Amino acid sequence: IITAVINLFYLSKFIKLDFKYRLLKEAFSYSLPIIPHALGGFLFMTSDIIILEKYVPTALIGLYVLSNKFARIFEHLLMAVNNALLPNYYRLSKLNSIDCALTFKNIYKLFLFFKLYVGLSFIFLFEIILNILVTSEFYGCKEFFYILIFAYIFRGLYFFCAYPLFFQKKTGIVCIATLISGATNLFLNILYVPTYGVIFAAYSTLVSNILVAVITFTFTKILKYPINISLFPIFLFIGINYLVAFIFMNADFAFIYKSLLFFVFISFVFISSYYLNLWDIRRLFNQFVINKLIC
């Protein structure tokens, strides 16, 4: 309070009170839907723990929370990339929304590769991290971890699809998508956690993140805001990688062979994508990565 008073005293000569109803209405129409959006996000992230405490032993909840904590590191990395891209999206949209959509379509292709293979690397390294940081009693959290990683991959898709909605000040739509997905997460946990246990909490998080991405993408297309990405190849590509992660996490053979399998798969997909020029990846890689390194 003292700091605020001092600042107001020194800044008073630069401040002029001028009430304009139009600006106030515009500000409230943008910001008010963000309040339930934030509450929906809280429901989204905490409902699973609340339900688990009622139906699942504390030891299993501890495993789930541990895996979620590690998976959140990956989510924060995606949020950092999102925060870095967002100002550029706003700047380009003000200049030309069509050109911006084409540019960010290309960026998203690289972002998708980045998300998937950083995510797979997290899954690969998680087993090493567990061996170093925790005792064998906590190794059971591996079965939740890879599901949560893919949940946050879809959350990264939601971030990207929400760009045009925030730019066009359609925060009400973002709020609706968040509330629907949060309510779905709560409903699925209440309905299925008592039967299937803690593993379904991870799957409900995955389903809810897919839902919020699909709803946001659908509204963006309905309102004809330029985004220029197609969901089917994205879902197909993520699905293939999910299958590989599932095999990797559940395969019952030595870690050295898992490591070799992981390295071969990553190398094969990247090299084949580059030389077959899937999604025009060769030009994009040269344009956004090689040229930047040279410069």
Summarize the structure in words.
With 295 residues, this protein is mainly α. The protein is 85% helix and 0% strand. It contains 11 helices and no strands. It has helices spanning 2-11, 21-31, 34-55, 58-95, 97-133, 142-167, 171-196, 198-222, 231-250, 255-275, 281-294. Helix 3 packs antiparallel against helix 8 (198-222). The N and C termini lie far apart (48 Å). 30% of the residues are buried.
The description of the largest β-sheet is: none
Output the structural class: mainly alpha
Instruction: Bin the helical content.
Output: over 70%
> What is the number of helices?
11
**Which sequence of SSEs, written as H and E, runs from N to C?**
HHHHHHHHHHH
Oligomer: single chain
